[in-house]
Automatic annotation (TrEMBL):
It comes from Pipistrellus abramus. InterPro entries: AB_hydrolase_fold, Pept_S9_AS, Peptidase_S9_cat, Peptidase_S9B_N, Serine_Prot_S9B/DPPIV. Residues 388-463 form the Peptidase S9 prolyl oligopeptidase catalytic domain. Keywords: Aminopeptidase, Cell adhesion, Cell junction, Cell membrane, Cell projection, Disulfide bond, Glycoprotein, Hydrolase, Membrane, Protease, Secreted, Serine protease, Signal-anchor, Transmembrane, Transmembrane helix. This is Dipeptidyl peptidase 4.
Length: 464
């Protein structure tokens, strides 16, 4: 259940009263919503000024349970059995309700429910995004269980009646005819300061994820980016610029660079990070300060990571936070493998792969090949990151090549590739791994008599 305090010394005021373990969850996610939708245990959303608290309520009473044993303490003779609501495909899902409570008067807390639109209430559905646009405007995204229909609902507070009004004129529908909406779910909206318009990543007509600009009260959107590449994430929205991460640079799906686009002249686009350290850094992420005056730029590869703080006004570096100088000195004395990125042609389409090559790699010799696979929808294994993991360990100690390949079903290369396995799991993504292995076996440095494959989670499914 949910409790609120004005300060640490004041008594707690109870907001909800019906919470039950593994049955009713208020303000915290159940297994499905934590693992697959929100990726967090919290289902609480404060308004920007702290007046309103929005929360979700999950009902798992009808959800089938799984049971497993947990061995907590050596002194216990018997393990504890955990009963977890865990819906499988086609099973009963948790039901979700959404509430907002005004916290100005803690002695009279009355949660107000906002119901899902009728177009999703007709069947099983999910609450998949909550975003405060202003202190009295909130957007909710609802998704049908089949996941090819989503609706963004914008709701305004009516102070005269202490209610929330969600006008049909402010509903924005997103659909897919080739697969599912979004990558893993519909993308979050980024609202302008007045809350009257927002920017959102969506599939364009060609099936590539790009940024679309909406007016809050109009369902027509205008794409402000375009191309046979994808916008990965919107990082910040200021009065003059929108900052985003994309894989446009050099046409490499596994790259990530920071761009900015001028809002009153969308032809004015600049790559902030592409040429800063072109050999060392081609996989970036960023975090912006409130208001967007400063940002942290994080380079994650292909060479050693580098973190720095920059000014948004001219993108100059203000402070180097981490250069990994000590790590560089340490690795100079270690036989490190080398990572390469390249592509092969399958079905007339470019598909990317990476290879971890052993130290002192000699292309005139032959090496055993281990294929490290995941292969799930919207996955990506071939990227420009610096990584030390089991693959680098095996390449270094066992003198083998470890390769990963992104075939049909993988992400960040358009919906045509990603949606190829829609309702066909275990088909094309498996066939492409086999065909990639055939092509790898013809490379002069691969021992075609010693090729293996391994994977965990969805990758284990692909290997089987």
């Amino acid at each position: 259940d949910i409790y609120i305090k004005n300060d640490p010394s004041s008594p707690a005021q109870r907001v909800t009263h019906d919470g039950r373990e593994d049955a009713i969850s208020n303000g915290i996610t159940d297994w499905v919503y934590e693992e697959e939708i929100f990726n967090t245990h919290s289902a609480l959303w404060w308004s920007p000024n702290g007046t309103f608290l929005a929360y979700a309520r999950f009902d798992d009473i009808q959800v089938p349970r799984i049971e497993y044993s947990v061995y907590l303490d050596e002194s216990l003779q018997y393990p504890k059995t955990v009963h977890l609501p865990y819906p499988k495909a086609g099973a009963e899902n948790p039901t979700v309700k959404f509430y907002i409570v005004n916290t100005d008067n803690l002695t009279n807390l009355v949660p107000v429910q906002i119901t899902a639109p009728a177009s999703v209430l007709i069947g099983d559905h999910y609450l998949c995004d909550v975003t405060w646009a202003t202190k009295e405007r909130i957007s909710l995204q609802w998704l049908r269980r089949i996941q090819n229909y989503a609706i963004l609902d914008i709701c305004d507070y009516d102070g005269a009646y202490s209610t929330w009004n969600c006008s049909v004129s402010r509903q924005h529908i997103e659909t897919s005819t080739t697969g599912w909406v979004g990558r893993f779910k519909p993308a979050e909206p980024h609202f302008t300061a007045d809350g009257n318009s927002f920017y959102k990543i969506m599939s364009n007509r060609e099936g590539y994820k790009h940024i679309c600009h909406f007016q809050a009260d109009n369902d027509v959107c205008t794409f402000i980016t375009d191309g046979t590449w994808e916008v990965i994430k919107i990082e910040a929205l200021t009065n003059n610029y929108l900052y985003y991460i994309s894989n446009e640079y050099k046409g490499m799906p596994g790259g990530r660079n920071l761009y900015k686009i001028q809002l009153n002249n969308i032809t004015n686009v600049a790559c902030v990070s592409c040429e800063l350290f072109p050999e060392r850094c081609q996989y970036y992420s960023a975090s912006f300060s409130k208001g967007g005056k400063y940002y942290q730029l994080r380079c994650s590869g292909p060479q050693l990571p580098r973190y720095s703080v920059h000014s948004s006004s001219n993108d100059t570096e203000l402070r180097l936070l981490e250069n990994n100088t000590d790590l560089y000195a340490t690795l100079r004395n270690i036989k490190m493998p080398r990572k390469t990125l390249d592509f092969i042609q399958l079905h007339g389409t470019k598909f990317w792969y990476q290879m971890i090559l052993p130290p002192h790699f000699d292309k005139s010799k032959k090496y055993p090949l281990l294929i490290d696979v995941y292969g799930g929808p919207c996955s990506q294994k071939a990227d420009a990151t610096f990584t030390l993991n089991w693959a680098t360990y095996l390449a270094s100690t066992e003198n083998i090549i470890v390769a990963s390949f992104d075939g049909r079903g993988s992400g960040y290369q358009g919906d045509k590739i990603m949606h190829a396995i829609y309702r066909r799991l275990g088909t094309f993504e498996v066939e492409d791994q086999i065909e990639a292995a055939r092509q790898f076996s013809k490379m002069g440095f691969v021992d075609d008599k010693r090729i293996a494959i391994w994977g965990w989670s969805y990758g284990g499914y692909v290997t089987s």
